[in-house]
Amino acid sequence: MAAPRGGNFGKVLEIDLSTQTYRTRTIPDEVYQQFVGARGLGAYFAVTEYKAGKNPLDEDAFVFIGSGPLAGTMCVSPRTSVVNKNPYTGLLNHGECGAHLASELKWAGWDGLLIRGRAKKPVWFSVVNDRVEFRDASRMWGKTTETTHEMMIREMKDSRIRSILIGPAGENGVPYSCLIVERFRAAARSNAGSVFGDKKLKGFAVRGTKYAVPVVDNARFLAAANVAKETNISDPGAGRRKVWGTASSLETNNFVLGSLIVKNFQTTWWPDIVKLGAEEAERKFWRRHVSCTNCQTHCLKLGVLREGKYRGLIAEAPEYESGGLLGSNLGMRDFDQMTALIEACDAYGLDYISTGGVLAFTTEAVEKGALKPSDLDGLKPVWGDGETYMKLIDKIAYKEGKAGKLLSQGVTKMSRQIGKGTDAYANVVKGRELAAHDPRGDKNRYYSYCIGTNGADHAEGASSRDLCMVAMNDSLCLCTFTSSGVWGASTDKIVVDMLNPLCGWNWKTDDYWTAAKRILAAERAFNVREGISAKDDRLPKRMYAEKLPAGPKKGVVFTEEDQKQRQSDAYKFLGWDEKGIPAEATLKALNLEFLIDDVNAAKKKFNL
Length: 608
Hints:
Elements: E1 11-16, E2 21-26, H1 29-35, H2 38-49, E3 63-66, E4 80-85, E5 92-97, H3 101-107, E6 112-116, E7 123-128, E8 131-136, H4 145-156, E9 162-165, H5 168-171, E10 179-181, E11 185-187, H6 193-198, E12 201-207, H7 218-233, H8 236-244, H9 248-257, H10 278-284, E13 286-290, E14 300-304, E15 314-316, H11 320-325, H12 335-348, H13 352-367, H14 386-398, H15 401-407, H16 411-418, E16 428-429, E17 432-433, H17 445-451, H18 464-476, H19 484-487, H20 491-503, H21 509-529, H22 541-545, H23 560-574, H24 584-589, H25 596-606
Parallel strand pairs: 1-6, 7-12
Antiparallel strand pairs: 1-2, 3-4, 3-6, 4-5, 7-8, 9-10, 9-12, 10-11, 13-14, 14-15, 16-17
Helix pairs in contact: 1-2, 2-18, 2-21, 7-20, 12-14, 14-15, 18-21, 20-21, 21-25
């Protein structure tokens, strides 16, 4: 087993919260060449350390925070990946986010953090290069994410720390709570907030000032990284995101693509989106563009409300997903109120995708008589009623009252508890709420929602090849907006041209695709062990049963043939059988033969 020569330090910081100790865990280069890093390395830990049926809230269950080989280098826009078994879905999950955490981890000399154990009382820890300090979080417990971030800065006397932490929702075990990164970014779809809360971990902060990422051939790497950067700068799509962020898709997906979500996916047509979208945000709210490390796109937009009830509120809003889920999906017309809902989710540490899905489902259940105000502590949500939605978010974060206890379960369990035909409009895949793209208007979103590892995730790829490229982006810690989304068919060559001089590897483009398929096969095998197969790769009932009533895609429905075509295409490309299970020959070809017995046992146990 050889040590890495470049790109990686070959070591992960392993934290044990039970004993409040830490150790260095070495990772050989052979593992990096197979699983790359970050998301891929998290999958490696999961399939080599967990048995089937592992309780994600066991004391020794881990959360892996990974930075890939390109973070901390001159490559554009590195991100951070969070990998854990998700207590919300029972499946392996990954969540990625921007900001600066991944580069800071590398500059502190680490390829990632593997966090286990459970503290007896609230704790947080700091990592400054090689030094780890465990700290009392009693005063932070119960505080919102922005307050906690400021408390960490004051205690460390360093305004340049990079934090990742939870709010009250994670502390209270809301299963769709999340991690907030550096105040305005979220690794939301890993739903690791409740895992941190169970471990009594409020969060941690990192500062790296000691180490540079090793590079085997600096001149060749810089030349390749420059190609990646210049391709970004010249891309017209990147220019649009510089100005509008992702918010402009609110208008585009309504007026052009017909995939905006409206009122719990009842339609994709909401002309009032002009009151919530990018142009309105620029007129009345945005004050500053913010970028991740070494990113020319700076898609994050910060603003401040300057009048009305929420005057002085500073927030990062709207992105496409936040504006969709807490805007049009709730029938909102009031920009300030929508922004306040988005900021409340960030402050409490709630995944606003699931939160928006829960609120919309609840509203439709009330509309159809399946729920009554008496079930919701006297509250009666109606479309566009931001005041009531704010009260319900408060109750969700603290699991307060009948409403908080019911809604904090998420749509899947709510629907089972309520019954009364609510499954017809429970818009979930693999137990989790859909993101803000209606698959009747955007049919290739099926790949991401259903074939992607997480389930209901919007960002796992829009084709079979795209699933692979996103798996590589997440493992390299590249932002899709500034990598495969711009590089297109040249992505494999651009990545390999950077990796070889950085890491001292001798990859061909075929190795890029093999590694991608290995990561996806490992993740799928993990989920097969939990009973997942083709039967679960389906969209919600509404998508097959109800035609879109208005908008650019009026009359369109997602058909069984639409599903069959995309499912078959993905399974064939990835080497999975007709039941969506990685074939034995595929596992052998990808050096994953150690998973064959587990997969065969799952087939027998779950009759797959």
